[in-house]
Design goal:
Elements lengths: L12 E2 L6 E5 L10 E6 L3 E4 L7 H11 L6 E5 L5 H4 L2 H7 L4 E5 L3 H5 L2 H10 L2 H7 L10 E4 L4 E3 L4 E6 L8 E5 L4 E5 L4 E3 L4 E3 L9 H14 L3 E4 L3 E3 L2 H39 L8 H25 L4
Parallel strand pairs: 4-5, 5-6, 6-7, 11-14
Antiparallel strand pairs: 1-2, 2-3, 3-4, 8-9, 9-10, 10-11, 12-13, 14-15
Helix pairs in contact: 1-3, 5-6, 7-8, 8-9
The structure holds zinc ion (ZN).
């Protein structure tokens, strides 16, 4: 039997980039170092990413342990509207009377009425996984701020610039903090598994778009970030190397799915992608990493199918 892990209480820990930026591990999907939620403790207080609905109480616990009251929080920023990024937002808002939620303009209506979003996410998942991804609570439109490219959120000494970053999803944002030059990447730059130092694509159905994601990578490079702050998970201190690795991995994963899925099947492709990306895994369980890879196999297959039907010129 596996030893019982004693989990420390939720707490924000300071990141080394400035005195105001903090990170907490919400242990998303019961995995440590997978769900990162950030706090910027400036004149105005912002939380970046809200996890799943299961993570909302953990975020509140971390806010309280930090010495802030939930009513001190001014802004909740979600990188995109997938359940593991925006699922907690509606639940947190009920406890945070002054906060507004900042979301990509293409995601706005789905946070007002999340029923379709929740339904389609649950359709794509088996029962266990659907449970882990949780649910969403509708958000009143007067508490939502629709964000477009280059919009800013001024927190005092920190100023956040929102960058339209499609590819992973059409409603994906990355967020540049001009004070420390770090970029919150959401899922736009793939997944980072710290400790094992694994970088892997995340290309979910139904709307993953390879060309757009590659364009997003070029844009992220041009910003010359000091660090990438991944939602899954944490800071990566060599942004150029990480993005360049992703610029190779994404097309190569796409090619493998295109060329081998029919002959090798999902299991064969899974083994190949796992061996390519995850051989160094020690901290992260194989099964957990494989689940993430399966998401991308399905998403890349859907992408190729869409491209075939779109024909030349799309
Ligand atoms: Zn996502």
């Amino acid at each position: 039997m596996a030893p019982t892990r004693i989990l420390s209480p939720m707490a924000f820990e300071r990141l080394p980039f400035d005195p105001e930026t903090y990170l907490t591990d919400v242990r998303m999907f019961e995995q440590e170092a997978f769900g990162a939620v950030y706090l910027i403790d400036d004149e105005r207080k912002a939380i970046i990413e809200t996890g799943t609905s299961w993570d909302a109480p953990k975020i509140l616990e971390a806010v309280n342990a930090f010495g802030l009251r939930p009513e001190d929080i001014d802004a909740l920023v979600v990188s995109h509207i997938h359940l593991d990024h925006a699922g907690g937002a509606g639940f947190l808002l009920e406890e945070m009377p002054r906060a507004n939620v900042y979301v990509h303009e293409r995601g706005f209506k789905h946070l007002v009425d999340p029923s379709k979003l929740v339904e389609s996410a649950h359709q794509a998942l088996n029962a266990d996984e659907a449970d882990l991804f949780g649910t969403m609570r509708p958000i009143r439109s007067d508490r939502l701020v629709a964000v477009k490219d280059q919009d800013r959120l001024d927190l005092g000494t920190h100023s956040l610039v929102f960058l339209d970053s499609p590819g992973h999803a059409p409603h994906e944002l990355t967020i540049l903090d001009e004070r420390n030059r770090c970029v919150y990447t959401g899922d736009a730059a793939g997944l980072y598994f710290p400790g094992d130092e694994i970088l892997m694509p995340i290309a979910p159905a139904p709307s993953f778009d390879l060309e757009k994601n590659l364009e997003t990578f070029r844009r992220l490079l041009s910003v010359k970030p000091r660090a990438l702050l991944f939602s899954h998970y944490g800071p990566h201190r060599k942004p150029k190397e990480a993005i360049e690795a992703m610029m190779v991995a994404y097309p190569s994963w796409a090619r493998i799915v295109e060329e081998r899925l029919a002959s090798a099947g999902e299991e064969g492709v899974l083994r190949q992608l796992y061996d390519m990306s995850c051989r160094a895994a020690k901290r992260f369980p194989r099964d957990f990493l494989e689940r993430r890879i399966r998401v991308s196999i399905k998403g890349l297959a859907a992408y190729h199918e869409r491209m075939e039907h779109a024909g030349p010129g799309r």
